[in-house]
Amino acid sequence: MKHTFFFLVITTWLILSFAPLCVADDQAAQDDGQTVSLSGDESGREAEKTSDRAGASPYDDDYDDDEYDYEDEPFSEERVTIDDPLEPANRAANIFNDRMYFWVLKPAALAYKFVAPEPARISVKNFFFHLGYPARFLNCLLQTDFAGAGEETGRFIINTIWGIGGLMDPAAGGKINLQKQDTDLGETLGVYGVGHGFYIVWPVFGPSSPRDSASFIDSHLLYPTSYFCPWYASTALTVFDYINSASLRIGEYESLIGAAIDPYTAMRNAYVQYRMKSIKARRARSLLFRDNETGQDATK
Amino acid sequence: MKAGDHNMKKYIFVLSVLIVLISAAYAAAGEPTAAVEASVNQVLGVLKDSKLKGPDAKKIKTEKLRIIYKSMFDEMEFSRRTLTRNWKNFTPAERREFVDLFEQVLEKSYLDKILDYSDEKIVFYKETMIDKDKAEVQSKIITSSNEIPIDYRIILKDGKWKVYDVVVENVSLVQNYRTQFNEILADGTPEDLLKILRKKVKDQS
């Protein structure tokens, strides 16, 4: 009994300690193969190149074989671009939104943050999200994501009753673990195969596209506060929702802009990447459209 | 009694073989995650270090973090992937400066974010082997109001797993910078890009 145990421990240890070495050897062999195939062909910089491998710095490598075109990269399908025929107008709207954020929204959010403690603000956020249930439910159905529609319904019931009308989110944690299905009409159209079209920056609402602008429809028509009378009551609630969410996300926009070399392009690309991946995730959940995802993508 | 003992031995043998096989498989699958997690834990160790306090704390922490991320990231791979084909239009000296400037931009942009860390939970939940030498490790930071998915794309080089792209909230940094650099280099020279980067670094400090 005792021997078996020691045998076990030692074998495990041996395997664990040698496994990385084997991988490393493989890698070294591959690297050597690569150096051979990488013979320089550009005459202009030949002088700066050193021929022996030990002295060659990676900066001297041209990598002008196909490897660094990244065409066959595993993530190449994610390389998605968007046309931007409205660029001048979009850039103007972008500047407008930037000013709006720094001059209006952020000061308001900071003041509000100062008064309202974080748990309260999170509850407010939960509540506004809770109200979006009809739109999310319908979109899940349209996407043929019936499990998602069920989860959303379960969340709505549980959070209405045990989450004090949606102020808290007991459905997300613990054993129940019903995850949010945060989706909209733009994503539904995306699941159906509608492309994003071109880039639009809406004043106030920010980055969008013709397809994603469809989300204004469901988020208005299926959002309960839209039907509040008088109209400014509903607008005031929307503004409150905006300020509240902003108070929980202060610093995010700043760091995106701060890290960017060209903020406009960075934002546009981030938007496109983000939407593309959410649609991909939605499609993977869809009963009807799932197959496109596992096999070769039909759109390619 | 005797027969039972024999069976027992056989059973233990089969079990031990199974365990060894399983643990070997597990070790092979968990290696990229383990590499990233180890680095992240090192970072957390520095951030949580209660001995580092006072006015100099930020500087010391920054120094310590720099050492960690130098071993965690493959900045060459990162830089090259953002430039793609444009890489060969740069002279070795320009490349060197580009990698250096780009690193400074990234450090200055993300350092404050990282130093802001206040005990949020970080969970590593999925690992996908993409190639023999490439993997994606998915993690999320759980804050009081939010969950931020962060995926690390890592590559095996000389026996070490190194990060070459970070995907924050579904946005790949490499791709994001690639579009920006492409746009600048579409009608500009490498020197133009370097100029912009130099200015950026100066403005940040």
Sketch the topology of chain A as an H/E string, one letter per element: HHHHHHEEHHHHHH
The best one-word shape of chain A is: globular
Radius of gyration of chain A: 26 Å
Amino- and carboxy-terminal Cα gap of chain B = 79 Å
Biggest sheet record of chain A: 2 strands, antiparallel
Please report the two chains with the greatest interface, counting residues with C-beta closer than 8 angstroms to the partner's C-beta: A-B, 58 and 59 residues
Beta-strand percent range of chain A: under 5%
- Count of helical segments of chain B? 6
Question: What integer value in Å does the Rg of chain B equal?
Answer: 22 Å
Report the major sheet of chain B.
Answer: 5 strands, antiparallel
Helicity of chain B, as a percent range? 55-70%
Could you walk me through the main structural features you see in this protein, from its secondary elements to its overall organization?
The complex is a heterodimer of chains A (300) and B (205). Chain A is an all-alpha fold and 300 residues long. Helices cover 59% and strands 2% of the residues of chain A. Chain A has a two-stranded antiparallel ribbon with strand order 1-2. Mean pLDDT of chain A is 79; it is low at 14-55 and 293-300. With 205 residues, chain B is of the alpha+beta class. Helices cover 61% and strands 20% of the residues of chain B. Chain B has helices at 2-48, 57-72, 75-83, 92-115, 173-186, 190-204; strands at residues 121-129, 134-142, 147-157, 160-168, 171-172. In chain B, strands 1-2-3-4-5 form a five-stranded antiparallel beta sheet. In chain B, helix 1 crosses helix 2 (57-72), helix 3 packs across helix 5 (173-186) and helix 4 runs parallel beside helix 6. The radius of gyration of chain B is 22 Å and the shape is globular. The N and C termini of chain B lie far apart (79 Å).
